[in-house]
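Late entry, written up from scratch paper. The run itself happened at the end of the previous shift, but nothing got recorded in the book at the time, so transcribing now.
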Amino acid sequence: MVKVQKHKNLGLTIMEVMVSIALLAIGVITFATMQAFFANDAKNRFIYGCLTTVSSNGIAMCMSGQPIPSTVQCGGIQLNLNVNCPQPTSGCSTITSTASYNNLSYRQIDSICNNSPYRKNNHRFHRPGLPIAE
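Output as recorded:
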């Protein structure tokens, strides 16, 4: 008669536990890194949206003759606005509007023309290519 030995291998060895914990840690660290990356990316997209809007509004304020503030609030953050707004002339001139926040900035350049026979007041400009407002 042959005796069969039964091994009682119940549970896990210490090596299996350590490998499992290492794999879990790698997964958790990878997930946390992805979350941080995408959160920062979303924040930058929001800031660039604000910079674009504020820069555009700076050009529109220049064209309409409104006073242009040096700082603007957008979504709870304070942006700096610098607009080079030339005085109206009989020809065309260039407006440069730059919005910035920390190390991010956005600049827009637009040409405007002052068509004196068609203006209603000193603050109305005509953008080349668009119909003239009467």
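Residues 92 and 113 are 4 Å apart (CA to CA).
(Scratch paper discarded after transcription.)
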